[in-house]
């Protein structure tokens, strides 16, 4: 009971802070469900048998909830309607439906396989897929404190959910496992929220509303406070100049462009590039910056080249697929490329 109390003592302030500060965000609401599932994992042995199906279903939802968190926080364009989303839904829904009819420890039958075993396998798959998004996209966040806190946040949550999932699937119900895992993970997550309170749960691409104008450069060193480090601003101006020349030459059209590739092309260290794009240009996400440049180029060509197929333009500006180009273009211009071209042609005729 002591370790259970420790876990609850750590989860309670985490729940209160999330409810107070992040309940208006979709990611915050989702994380509240993760906390509820963690409480269910912690207190399940203490619940009367006739009500334990509730805590069991809540625990089973944790891998799917973690996958959703990873998608919303890190994926440039979350794809919830996908094979991964179907696996996440199955991993929760199948055991919930099978629970009244099939015991997980029964002999192997089709009902046991489809009701329990396949769902358990999908739990591991969606957990790993969620972690792959964290590792793949965390560098695109240009706000250093938030980037590091987000990485720690989801690695801590993911590790705790992974250990909890393994312990549940293998029947390891010891209080030490539940109390220590839940308590330490809640405490570490609480530190992450406090460290980077601003923006840690923002959705990727939510820094500016769709269709908003491209951010303008921040004031030059002359308008900054007198105590600002002039050498720092001189270096930042030089880096910004190199970056602009590189992009003006069309480097943003490079397929699968990453911050690392851009760093190699400009010979500017990644940490300085992040500061330039964030502090000088006003962007908080690398993909958002690249999409603005590509869509501006594409919009000009759509206006000036009415005979060029949209697919050709999308490939020329750096998109691998027409669907990804359409999504990025619509987010910025509030219209698909075809609609935008038709609007421009109509304006020219009138």
From TrEMBL:
Keywords: DNA-binding, Membrane, Transcription, Transcription regulation, Transmembrane, Transmembrane helix
Region (Disordered): 205-230
Entry's transmembrane regions: 6-23, 30-47, 53-75, 82-101, 121-139, 151-170, 176-196
Coiled coil: none
Origin superkingdom: Bacteria
Compositionally biased tracts (Pro residues): 212-222
One Pfam short name: HTH_18
InterPro entries named in the record: Homeodomain-like_sf, HTH_AraC, HTH_AraC-typ_CS
Positions of the HTH araC/xylS-type domain: 241-343
The protein's name in its UniProt record: Transcriptional regulator, AraC family
């Amino acid at each position: 009971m002591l370790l259970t109390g420790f876990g609850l003592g750590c989860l309670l302030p985490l729940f209160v802070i999330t409810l107070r500060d992040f309940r208006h965000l979709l990611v915050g609401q989702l994380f509240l469900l993760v906390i509820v599932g963690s409480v269910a994992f912690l207190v399940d042995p203490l619940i009367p048998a006739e009500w334990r199906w509730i805590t069991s279903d809540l625990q089973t939802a944790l891998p799917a909830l973690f996958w959703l968190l990873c998608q919303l926080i890190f994926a440039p364009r979350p794809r919830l309607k996908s094979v991964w989303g179907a696996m996440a839904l199955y991993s929760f829904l199948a055991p919930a439906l099978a629970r009244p009819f099939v015991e997980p420890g029964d002999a192997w039958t089709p009902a046991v396989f489809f009701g329990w075993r396949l769902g358990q396998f999908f739990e591991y798959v969606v957990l790993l897929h969620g972690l792959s998004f964290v590792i793949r996209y965390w560098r695109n966040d240009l706000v250093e404190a938030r980037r590091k806190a987000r990485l720690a946040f989801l690695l801590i949550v993911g590790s705790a959910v992974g250990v909890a999932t393994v312990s549940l699937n293998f029947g390891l119900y010891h209080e030490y496992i539940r109390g220590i895992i839940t308590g330490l993970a809640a405490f570490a997550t609480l530190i992450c929220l406090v460290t980077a309170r601003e923006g840690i749960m923002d959705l990727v691409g939510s820094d500016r509303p769709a269709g908003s104008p491209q951010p303008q450069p921040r004031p030059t060193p002359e308008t900054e406070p007198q105590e600002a480090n002039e050498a720092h601003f001189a270096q930042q101006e030089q880096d910004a100049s190199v970056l602009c020349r590189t992009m003006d030459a069309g480097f943003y059209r490079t397929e699968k462009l990453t911050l690392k590739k851009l760093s190699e092309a400009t010979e500017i260290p990644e940490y300085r590039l992040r500061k330039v794009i964030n502090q000088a240009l006003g962007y908080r996400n690398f993909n958002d910056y690249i999409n603005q440049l590509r869509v501006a180029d594409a919009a000009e060509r759509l206006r000036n080249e009415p005979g060029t197929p949209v697919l050709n333009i999308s490939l020329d500006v750096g998109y691998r697929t027409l669907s990804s180009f359409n999504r990025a273009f619509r987010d910025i211009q509030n219209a698909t490329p075809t609609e935008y071209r038709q609007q421009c042609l109509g304006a020219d005729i009138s």
